[in-house]
Amino acid sequence: MKRSLILALLVALVAVSAAQAGNGKVLAVKFDADVNPVTQKWLSDRIDEGAEYDALVILLDTPGGLDSSMRKIVQDELDAKEPVVVYVAPNGARAASAGVWIGQAADVLAMSPVSNIGSSTPITGNGANIGSDLKRKIVNDAAASLRNLASAHGRNAKWADRAVRKASNLTADEALRMNVVDLIAPDLPTLLQKIDGRAPTLRNVALHTAGDEVVTEKMGFLTRLLDTLIDPNLLSLLFLAGIGGILFEVFHPGVVLPGALGAVALVTALFGFSVLPTDWAGLALIVLALVLLVIDAHVVTHGALTVSALVALAVGLLTLFHDAPKPYEVDTWFVVLITASIGGFMAFALGKAVQARRRPSAMPAMVGAEGVVRDGGLVFVRGELWQATTSDGDALEPGVRVHVDEVHGLRLKVHRVA
Description:
alpha/beta
C-alpha cells in the first residue's frame, strides 16, 4: 500500500515537472514595423498562437504608431496564457513611442547591447501641438498607464513618467542601470539561457527556456502589403485616382479600363480609410473638390469653380487624417504637389477650351469641298471621315467622288461628281 502511494506521488511529480518544462519550444516573433491596426492584428494572432509554447519572444524594432492599436497589443500581452518576453533587437533596434508600452507590458523586457528605448510623449490628436487642457489630459492618461505597467512588473515607474512627459530616451546600458529593462543579451540563445528559471512578477510559474528550440515567425507578404497600403499619401492618391477613373468611365462609356482600375483603387482607398482614424469632413471636401472640377469642365465659369475645388482639395487632404500621429498624416508637400498638378492641368485644359471657342468654325469651309466615299457610307473629306447623305437619298458606293453641298451638324449633304 505504501509502495503504491509513493509510486503515485512520484508519477505526479514527474507529470508536474513535465508540465512546468513545457514543450521545449519558444516562439520568436519579429515585429519590425509601425504599430497600426494591420500589424496589431498580426501580432495579436501570434500572441494567441504562442499559448502552445514555453514562451513568446517579441523581437521588437518599432518607431511607434497608433495609440488605439498599441493598447490592444498591451491588453493581449497582459492576457496571454504564455509568458511574454520583449527583446529590443537586433543591434540598432529601438522601442520608441508605442514600443515602450509594448515592452513594459511584457513579463521580461530585454535589450540588445546597441539599442535604445523611450520618447513616449503621445501625439494622438496632435496633442503635442495643443497647449490646453486636452494636451494635459492626454499626457496624464498616458503617463499613468505607462507608470502602472512599469510598477506592476517591478521596473522604474519614475522613468516611465519622464518618458511620457519629457520624451526621455535611454541606451541599453542606461536602461539596465536605471531598472527600466530586466537584462541585456547579445543574441536570442543567450537571452533564453539568462531568463531560464526566472519567475515573472505577474505569473506563478518559472520560465523554462534554456536550450529550447526557437520557432521564428515574420510578417508575410500580405501583411507587409496591407501595411504599405495604409500610407496616408498613397491612400489619398488612390482615392483621387479611383474617383477620377470612375468619372472618366461615366463620361466616356465603353472604355472599361479606367473604370475598372478606378474601382480597384477606390475600394483599396476605402479599406485604408476604415483602418486609419479618418476625418469624414476632410473626405467630403475631397469629393466636393472633384465634383466642382467636373462641373467646371462642362460649364463656363472662367476657372472660378476650379479655384474653389483646389482650395477644398487642399483643406480636405490636410484634414483627412489630422487625428492620427504624425507618420499617418498627409504630407504637406504632397498636398502642394497634387493641387499644383491638378491646377496646372485644369489651366491648360481651360485655356485650350477658350481658344477653341474663339477659333472660327471650320464647318462652312467644308461646303464646296470634294471627297471620296469609304466603306460604311462614310466620306473622306480634307483628312477626316464624315457621315454623309445624298440629296436624292440614294446609297453611296465606296470609291465614288462626291461634292459637299451643305453641313448639318456633323453630317454632310453631298452629290456625286461625274
